[in-house]
Design a protein that fits this description.
Helix content: 40-55%
Distance between the termini: 62 Å
Strand content: 5-15%
Shape: globular
Largest sheet: 6 strands, mixed
Structural class: alpha/beta
Oligomer: single chain
Number of strands: 9
Length: 314
């Protein structure tokens, strides 16, 4: 396990992240998060676990995480939920509730970093979902770092190991982990892609993985320009005349994508919808309303954009 720990430490060093700071780790009880927890158990950490009580055996996952933390003298905070989720929106709602809980624990223990156990399969599944949605994202896959709800987030295993490799490492080190049987059920798009990837070799997956990494590297300069313009546009109160000066339609579409994802949750953005929003921003109407979905609107007032939370009278 020493070699794997050194590999993990090298990732922290590469990204100039202090491994000795106060760290919160999100732990589900699955092999990925239990392996990360095991590698980090000697550090200054706190564990957060969410039990959705959606599976008949979810209490086993909770007990597994709790017992590991007790044995290693690690503070462990558990959130038990009993919501009546609908299959269509479970993943989105679960994600929101999970991160809100993480934020609460992050503040409670004065943490300065949240670690998540996403690995190479997670990256590839996300990238394929994005590719098959017929839109070009700023970044394929998952970012290794980020910020959400005032938490600094880092995913140190994202480029290190595939899930099968992690399971093998857990077994080699006699590390107990839980298995979520719903991961193998084709009830979500991600699960269907996961089942599809299970039929190919790690070498074939690595080839696809590398292709997406190369696409991200090619896209870096474009993303920099998009984010730079967005920051300037925000400083100018999202003035529509400023936006109209952009000649590139791709740039306009990408900036609108950033605008919506930064200011709204759960908006389905197809290419057609993005172009429609671009047309709304560029239209001659200085005062107008664009309906994003049944509950969210984008407002234009005196040729500046406002969001649902502002609800200006137009």
């Amino acid at each position: 396990m020493n070699n794997e720990f050194e590999e993990l430490i090298d990732v922290f060093k590469k990204h100039s992240i202090d491994i000795e700071q106060k760290i919160l780790i999100g732990v589900s009880g699955g092999p990925d998060s239990m392996w990360l927890l095991n590698l980090m158990k000697a550090k200054n950490i706190v564990v957060a676990h969410v039990n959705y009580n959606k599976r008949i055996d979810s209490n086993y996952d909770q007990a597994l995480v709790k017992n590991f933390c007790l044995e290693n003298n690690i503070p462990c905070e558990i959130l038990n939920l009993h919501s009546d989720y609908q299959i269509g929106n479970f993943q989105s709602i679960a994600r929101d509730e999970r991160y809100e809980f993480y934020s609460e624990i992050y503040k409670k223990y004065n943490c300065t970093l949240l670690l998540l156990a996403h690995q190479k399969d997670d990256f590839l599944e996300t990238a394929l979902m994005q590719q098959r949605s017929n839109r070009t994202p700023f970044l394929y896959g998952i970012k290794i770092d980020g910020n959400l709800l005032s938490m600094n987030i880092f995913r140190p295993m994202l480029y290190l190991w595939w899930k099968k490799e992690i399971i093998d490492l857990c077994n080699k080190n006699s590390l107990l982990f839980a298995t979520d049987s719903t991961n193998e059920m084709p009830i979500y798009t991600r699960n269907k892609i996961r089942l599809e990837l299970n039929t190919i070799t790690i070498a074939e997956k690595q080839k696809k993985f590398t292709e997406f990494i190369d696409l991200n590297n090619e896209n870096d300069n474009f993303v920099f320009l998009v984010e730079k313009f967005y920051d300037e546009w925000e400083k100018n109160n999202f003035d529509c005349d400023m936006f109209k000066k952009l000649v590139s339609r791709d740039m306009q579409q990408s900036i609108v994508f950033l605008l919506i994802t930064k200011n709204y949750k759960n908006i389905n953005l197809t290419s057609k919808k993005l172009f429609s929003i671009v047309d709304f921003v560029c239209s001659k109407n200085r005062t107008a309303i664009y309906k994003l979905n049944s509950t969210n609107k984008l407002f234009k007032r005196k040729n500046k954009l406002f969001f649902s939370s502002f609800s200006p009278i137009v």
